[in-house]
Write a structure and sequence with these properties.
2 copies of one chain form a homodimer. Chain A is of the alpha+beta class. Chain A has 15 helices and 30 strands. In chain A, a hairpin with a 5-residue loop joins strand 17 and strand 18. Chain A is globular.
Chain lengths: 577, 577
């Protein structure tokens, strides 16, 4: 491509409303432009990257045996009513009416449509397993779209859905998809981690997220220092402290703690560490058979935080997790939230594993402005129910017994999920099994945020000059910059010749033949992030050399004009392919 | 691809609600499935065709110098309000509200979005001309979606928009796009015609439609027998009859024609040909400066039909064309519509070119139940205004003076259009010209109905067994059918070997390794329309031969096993590439 005939829409200024690096750089490098909140146009330079990501995803999905389809973006409400999601799905579902007043939505995902297709199309276990995918524009009406294409409303997703006659077959395809996702993210040159994710709400038996590691990531992910263990913070198990609980050494005593309403305040007031204070949270319980919903107390160590997903997944806790109101607490306990504790509490108590190891601890006295000190489990208060209730913290032991946990920030770019029969059951999607009996299909679903990957890659690959694309998804692999080519026919001719030579060798080449100052051209090529750069100049031609600089290189180097192609081949990852 | 691991979703029955061949065959061959009215899922087999069409369109657009972009499908109302189309566009525009209640639409076209993008991005004539295109899912809420993907609500379109500092530059790019479209439709193997189209309503200076010729086409297109002249019926000029009008030979006389209200009835009643009767139509005139809208009479030969576009394009006729009501006719003329005529009519009269050549003709007497015979222009009624008002008919002389006109049915698959400054003026899209002055951009737009092309190709390429794809867009170029391969390891091995050989030579191959009867496999491959078919059988292997049959061939032929690849290469159009 000749830059003189191409939209090089670079900008010097960092856009004021772009918070994260990838958003800033995609705007500055002329990759995207905002149309409206959460809606972006892809300019030619950005679209080249997006298409290369798509191609890698497509090639690996095809290799896995998945079959590409394309379903409509606009979906009829009837199918969503059948699955129950028309009511359940919140404001993110963009609903609309057609000219006849019928209800439709702009699909954020396609479980219903594919399940409808497959229940009509497949009749026998012999046609299974089958895995169908599409690469398609989706819409989620995010309450607060942000970070450019990272969390846009309209975005491109690869979504796949697999169908099985039993759970073993689902498991096999799930493993294939896990490996396929690793192959995709490897080829994309991303530093990523597959992590265990919670699958409780949908009732499936397994779920993994694929996270790109980046400080701007919106998710916390957890690794072991010494093993492959990795999970997102919602899922990561906090194991019980080793050994037995120590024996009590203090007597329980009541102390006045006027106006001390938080753990921090109480700990400071009583001069103890927060880890020696018990945090008591009252939440709504599941309704009983009479439709009555009481409260449940959750006890955590004062320095730990409640993991809402873990709490919500407990059968006796109401879902979604709902904190008791101030009125309910007053009514049930007789004091404010800051003074409650497990001793003599009249509601069921569930104690976190770490909290269950506390000795001689402090807790609220269930009496306004008073706490108890020297409290001990069993002696002062029963310990009937211990569960994992908290978020892990750095340094916790890894659940697999190997090493300790580290916490990093991640950007979710993929998610694989065993759906089980959630949709197939609701929508009556069955086939005949080996015995000629009707079997409800088992399903898996597998998503990749295609447009988000473009931004994620930039979060991991940039410097103060701009983007540093991996060769595999760079808009152009190599730039040829002609210096003053408009004044020097020999420079332009040498640039053109090199351009044709590299193109014919299969490289994506941008010939920067613009009538611009050298500094402007260099800055643009660096901002755009092209991995390899050749400079053609009169000085160089005299010596029959070109200047080369890799985007990550500190220094330039002169190479013989005749060696350009072999040099590029050796400098490019294609060399190893 | 192995058929045993692929969704071969063929059906024997012709679907009852599919009216045209392409819709029937796309369903029967397992290319598409209906989700809801005008919404179709593309199954793997159909998507392969769609992607090949896309690729050809993309390659030729790239070659033309156009740059690919991708704009959001969801568009904010504000831009459409700026262009004035938010109000003008009818029920086809799918409008919706986001969670904050803001107005959006699902884009049926992207003039507003691209004009907004370009007015912000381009500043100088030096950056022009520029042509941007996308291949994207569009939505038009058709009142009556029909014919499958031929007239669907959600469809895939290639839309391009070019920007220019003056009309000459627009003209150059328009010519490039005309040539590019011909290259695209040539490569797609379509029998098509570029035809002149009317561009009056948008005010542009030129417009061409590209029609695929097919009896199921919804449009009438017109050609010359002896030249390149082609136009759609709206645009095709009806030239004035050759020579001067003959002299009158009859006296004008009034005759009673009781209850004879149509041209046919009057002609029969008076025993004259319809071509000797004048048809008089009263339509609304443009409002005058006082806001008063009167009537205008349009006179046609009785055997001709009014061309509404031509009438509407006349400056003194109201747009859109509106027929006078019975009440208005009674009030102005004093009789019913069946008895009106130009003689002594009190409203302005515009006479069609052919009608102006009538001699001794019949027309209404402007008196209920009466007509005049022997009427002659000039002698009996003034002939002040002659225009081209009618649709051409077969046998009319071609407007370029060469040959006569033929009329065929066409499916519109492309449209190129000089928009001029319609959008750029409304949206204030300017650049600085060579003199440093602000110049409103000239624009062109260029559409191709990508998904419609798939159906159009089938309309032209099928027989009673199924589809006959051109090699360039066939889902697979060649099928290898193994006969009883599940029983014969040598047949399966030979099939696999041939499969790998042809694949490695670059062919798209479908290995039909299914455990099905030979007849089922042959019928499926023919229905799906794969251009080349090899059969591997035990009998053949004994003789070291394969059976070959081209999809259009009458007969099979045996070819030596070792010759399969060279034979295929010579049989395939790639041979000539």
């Amino acid at each position: 491509m000749r830059a003189s005939r191409y939209l090089i829409a670079t900008q010097k200024e960092t856009p004021a409303d772009a918070e994260i690096i990838s958003h800033q750089m995609m705007l500055r490098a002329g990759m995207i432009r905002k149309l409206a909140s959460g809606l972006y146009s892809w300019l030619p330079m950005g679209l080249r990257v997006l298409r290369k990501v798509e191609r890698i995803v497509r090639e690996e999905m095809d290799k896995s045996g998945a079959q590409e389809v394309l379903m409509p973006a606009v979906q009829p409400a009837e199918l969503w009513q059948e699955s129950g999601r028309w009511e359940q799905y919140g404001g993110e579902l963009l609903r609309m009416n057609d000219r006849h007043g019928r209800d439709f939505c702009f699909g954020p995902t396609h479980e219903e449509v594919i399940t409808d297709l497959i229940r009509n199309e497949l009749k026998s276990y012999k046609e299974l397993p089958a895995n169908f995918y599409q690469i398609q524009t989706k819409f989620r009406d995010e309450r607060r779209p942000r970070f450019g294409v990272m969390r846009a409303r309209e975005f491109i997703m690869k979504d796949a859905y697999s169908f099985h006659v039993n759970a073993e077959s689902l498991n096999d395809t799930y493993q294939v998809m896990h490996r396929t996702y690793c192959a995709i993210f490897d080829r994309l040159g991303l530093d990523y981690r597959p992590v265990e994710a919670d699958s409780g709400a949908i009732g499936g038996s397994a779920s993994h997220e694929f996270h790109v590691l980046a400080s701007s990531g919106e998710d916390a992910i957890v690794f072991s220092t010494d093993s492959d263990y990795a999970a997102n913070i919602e899922k990561a198990e906090a194991v019980a402290p080793a050994g037995d609980r120590s024996s009590p050494s203090e007597e329980m005593a009541e102390v006045a703690t006027p106006e001390q309403r938080t753990i921090e305040a109480v700990a400071t007031f009583l001069n103890v560490d927060a880890s020696r204070c018990a945090k008591t949270l009252l939440v709504k319980a599941e309704e009983d058979d009479n439709g009555h919903s009481g409260l449940i107390a959750l006890i955590l160590r004062g320095d730990h935080t409640l993991n809402e997903i873990k709490a919500e997944n407990l059968p006796d806790v109401a879902e979604p997790l709902t904190m008791a109101t101030d009125e309910e607490i007053e009514q049930v306990v007789g004091c404010k939230a800051g003074s409650i504790g497990p001793v003599n509490l009249t509601v069921p108590v569930i104690v976190d594993r770490s909290a269950a190891h506390m000795v001689d601890f402090v807790c609220g006295a269930n009496k306004e402005g008073h706490h108890l000190t020297g409290v001990n489990w069993e002696r002062d208060v029963a310990l009937s129910r211990v569960e994992d209730l908290r978020d892990v913290v750095e340094g916790d032991p890894s659940p697999d017994g190997k090493g300790t946990l580290e916490i990093r920030r991640g950007i979710e770019v993929g998610h694989i999920f065993k759906l089980g029969n959630k949709y197939s059951k609701a929508m009556n999607a069955t086939v005949l099994d080996e015995n000629g009996k009707s079997a409800t299909l088992e399903m898996g679903c597998y998503g990749i945020g295609v447009s988000r990957i473009v931004a994620s890659s930039i979060e991991q690959n940039h410097d103060d000059k701009g983007i540093i694309w991996p060769d595999a998804i760079a808009p152009f692999e190599v730039a040829i910059v002609t210096l003053n080519g408009h004044k020097s026919p020999s420079v332009m001719a040498a640039g053109e010749k090199l351009y044709e030579q590299l193109r014919q060798a299969g490289f994506d080449v941008l010939l920067d033949d613009r009538n611009e100052r050298p500094g402007v051209k260099f800055a643009d090529m660096e901002l755009i992030g092209i991995p390899h750069r050749f400079v053609v100049s009169e000085r160089g031609l005299t010596a029959e050399t070109l200047e080369y600089k890799g985007r990550r290189d500190e220094d330039k180097q002169d190479i013989p004009l005749a060696e350009a192609l072999p040099f590029l081949i050796s400098a490019s990852p294609r060399n190893g392919l």
